[in-house]
Specification:
This protein is mostly helical. Among the domains are: about 90 residues; about 45 residues, no CATH class. Helix 1 runs antiparallel to helix 2. The longest helix is centred in the N-terminal third of the chain and has 24 residues. It is flat, with a radius of gyration of 28 Å. The N and C termini lie far apart (about 60 Å).
Length: about 375
Amino acid sequence: MTSHDGPESVRSPTAAEQAVFERLERLAATEGSSAMLHSLATWLAETGRWHALFDVRLLEARLACGLPPSGDLAGIDRSIRDKLDEASLAACREAGWPLLDEGRPAAAWMYLRAAAEPAEVAARLERLLGREDLADRDELRTEIMQLALWEGIDPALGLRLVIEDHGTCNAITAYMQAVARLPAARRRPAADVLVDHLHGECIERGSHVDLSHLHSVLGIGRECTDRNRIAKALALADYGRGAPEDMLMPGEPPFTELAIASQKFFGAQLGQGVDAAVAYFEAQRDCSPDDAAPAEWLAILLWRIGRAKESLRILLSRTPGSDGFSTGLLPSIVDLAVAADDLPAVLDACRTWNDPVTFAAAVAAHQNFKSCQKLR
């Protein structure tokens, strides 16, 4: 077996450790391999040798299933495979949580990635940052930052650490490289962090900010759905309107006029200039009929301001096989149909598209919605 518990795993044993070998040999001869492995596991847990304990738990599982302690497992019965998998996950938790509590998050994640909920790991990582008893604090922060960001455990926590340790520019780069690839629900808390930070810098503290940072955060801020963050994003858009026109880079359609379009997008979600904002984004869509982005952002805006039926119509107007919407910020077409109370439109579209799966999902969702209404 391979152990990763450190240099002590390959040095000569002390007298006390030598006694362990003698006890194991004696137990194997008198009580059998299971008793021997149980004793070894107990000793490894008491001495904090978590990697080795993981190996022993796998050995125990193999023997309990009537398998040899080593060798290929190909072709074993599925029920036995399931038992081994269950034992492996339990061993991952038994080794991973203590490693995390000891301030070794990277080593812990080798086990916990397969056996623990990321939310629970994220909560414990946050608590580790407040532990003053742990050595190598800089290394610990770096490990937590990398796991939170690049393993997707808690992108918002990772970005906070990047901002604190490396500044705004690096945080924006980290968002683009590590967070932007995640689903919308995972991106949103990280977007909130960047909007809060830049708003604090240039609005609350009045500090000068690099306009390239403002450009990036105005785009990232479109992820936000919390009214407080939307208000902060609107304030950043107002700040951008005050910059020299040739200094703020244009955005991609429909945000080519970045500050103006951002003001309308965020303002409408707060009830400000709603009709004017919708008309603006409709015009942007009509100017670029072959570009999916303006239509998608119009649909997003309509959804967020409570005009689900109009948003749905935009989705239904897309030709099957054409470039689809890509932000992930809209609900599914089925959820949108329920919100718009417009099931017939989706059913008709599914018939046209020859899409029986979405058709069935829409019917089932509608029936579930009606059942919930009756229970109220």
